[in-house]
């Protein structure tokens, strides 16, 4: 199964991605992986070219012309919603999507065996779900649809998602979903995550949190397979930003993240914020 990352032109996400791929190569040296970007060649860090990564350029439906300006700083987050439309993924029935701010800590073979009807994710630990709308509507092919808020259920984190692309493509379901996204982005906050949660709701399969594990959890070091820097990133250690999430094994995984940087990259990161 192919592992997919998505990337925009933000240099910080590019460096996060570089470390993510380096740790993935340690765990699965022959992993089939790709990076999907809406930017140009010059926007990708040179270090990616040395990691045997397939780079895919894709023109997204959700872009700066129809996505609210408040999301433009990390607009690459929405690329994951369109994986079923990427031509280079047309032969893949399932893919494992991962955010850039990840460390692959231990093998995660169980995920390769899962076959969700639509998608599978782990429980969200940091951001509770909130919506002012009990029902959201949208129009697709001149037909109006209504989606009733599926909560209270688990709220899922979209940092690691197992997508059933074959199901998304069936009966052009992907364009139905994107119509919902485009018409309701301004109503739901926190980028792509509430869109997936609201639209798919109880159809989402929940997998164990060890496959999308925040570093502040007490079991992250011993049991976590895929570590996700939800909240503060490694260079924000010691700052006042989400100080309560800089706990547990956060510092341990920050050290691990820094150990995968070159000296030049460490100098770059040193300009972004406190390291110790």
Keywords:
276 residues, alpha/beta, seven-stranded mixed sheet, two-stranded antiparallel ribbon, 8 helices, 11 strands, 25% helix, globular
Structure description:
By secondary structure, this protein is an alpha/beta fold. The protein has helices at residues 11-27, 109-113, 165-169, 173-184, 193-200, 220-223, 250-259, 263-270, and strands at 2-7, 33-37, 54-57, 94-98, 102-104, 119-123, 135-140, 143-148, 156-164, 205-206, 226-228. The strands form three sheets. A seven-stranded mixed β-sheet has the order 3-2-1-4-9-6-10, with helices on both faces. A two-stranded antiparallel ribbon has the order 5-11. Strands 7-8 form a two-stranded antiparallel sheet. α1 (11-27) links the parallel β1 and β2. The mean pLDDT is 91.
Topology:
Elements lengths: L1 E6 L3 H17 L5 E5 L16 E4 L36 E5 L3 E3 L4 H5 L5 E5 L11 E6 L2 E6 L7 E9 H5 L3 H12 L8 H8 L4 E2 L13 H4 L2 E3 L21 H10 L3 H8 L6
Parallel strand pairs: 1-2, 1-4, 2-3, 6-10
Antiparallel strand pairs: 4-9, 5-11, 6-9, 7-8
Summarize the structure.
The protein is an alpha/beta fold and 276 residues long. The protein has 8 helices and 11 strands.
């Amino acid at each position: 199964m192919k592992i997919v990352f998505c990337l925009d032109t933000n240099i910080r996400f590019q460096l996060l991605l570089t470390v993510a791929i380096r740790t993935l190569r340690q765990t699965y040296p022959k992993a089939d992986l790709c990076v999907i970007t809406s930017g140009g060649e010059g926007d990708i860090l040179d270090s990616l070219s040395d990691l045997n990564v397939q780079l895919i350029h894709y023109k997204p439906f959700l872009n700066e012309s129809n996505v609210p300006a408040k999301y433009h700083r990390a607009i690459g987050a929405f690329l994951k919603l369109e994986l079923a439309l990427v031509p280079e993924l047309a032969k893949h029935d399932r893919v494992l999507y991962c955010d850039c701010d990840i460390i692959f800590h231990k093998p995660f073979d169980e995920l390769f065996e899962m076959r969700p009807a639509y998608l599978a994710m782990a429980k969200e630990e940091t951001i509770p779900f909130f919506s002012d709308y009990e029902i959201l509507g949208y129009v697709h092919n001149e037909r109006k649809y209504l989606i009733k808020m599926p909560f209270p259920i688990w709220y899922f984190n979209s940092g690691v998602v197992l997508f059933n692309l074959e199901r998304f493509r069936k009966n052009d379901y992907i364009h139905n979903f994107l119509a919902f996204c485009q018409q309701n982005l301004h109503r739901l906050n926190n980028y792509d995550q509430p869109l997936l949660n609201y639209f798919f709701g109880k159809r989402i399969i929940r997998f164990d949190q060890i496959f999308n594990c925040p570093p502040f959890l007490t079991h992250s070091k011993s049991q976590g397979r895929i570590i996700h820097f939800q909240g503060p990133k490694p260079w924000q250690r010691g700052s006042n930003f989400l100080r309560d999430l800089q706990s547990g094994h956060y510092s341990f995984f920050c050290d691990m993240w820094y150990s995968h940087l070159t000296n030049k990259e460490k100098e770059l990161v040193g300009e972004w914020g406190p390291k110790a």
